[in-house]
Amino acid sequence: MWSVGEALERFISSLELTEGQRSEVSRQHTLVREALSRRLAGCETSFLSGSYSRSTAIRPLHDIDIFTVVGRAASTPPETPDAALKRARKALHEEWSQKELPILQQHSVHLEFTTRDIEFDVVPAYQHPSQELFLIPEGDTGRWIRTNPRIHKELSTAANERAGKKLKPLIKAAKHWNRLHGSSPLRSFHLEVMSYEAFSRAPSGYLEGLETLFAFMAGRVERPSSDPAGLGGNVDERMTGGQRTAARNALQGAAREVRLALSERDARPEEAHKRLRKLFGEAYRYR
To answer: Looking at the whole model, is its pTM more than 0.85?
Structure first.
């Protein structure tokens, strides 16, 4: 039987993408970006954004964000958000006409490659001509909202450095826990944004870090979380009071289980392993 520390490190490593997966993602997203450059009118540039670019994505990959600059605008772009999304969908469908029509989403167009098990979310965006911000569509409200994924990436890196480079592995473990509990109202980005405030210094180990992270988020989720770039609205603006309570209870429960595992780690490792397996499912192995 492995030690609790070894099992936890192995579990976190298992969430990382393999070299083969990274190579395939690189090949595939290059094809998508080249297609957008050819077929999407006004496309100036594109770059990876979202959790994949911040190195907080976990297996299996549910989506990879491709941020696609389709023009420049200081305030209101020359088309509606719906029109921008449909233009991006049309460009993708022209390139892959044998596939089903890409799916329109809130801020993006979803393209799936089932044979490769890779999915992309293409986000059409207008860049402000003088400021470091972008305007992206919000489908259900018909608004353009302000954001900058490059700032999100910088803040994620800074928070990880403060935590002795342990934050991103801990985020991945928390995301796996959140994904495993399908009833959780927490969105992945919301969870990640809250985690940026959790550590002012490095935790002594991953188990201690997990307890700190879950306990911190249990209290933090009760308050609104603003866009870390300071540009858009709150990242949790659609969360109801009931959902906050449910998220708090779930996070408190996770923190309690990790706290108990900490107390059992040395004297009763088998019990500690069982608690962590209850949290993280079959991906957590200890022998």
So the answer is: yes
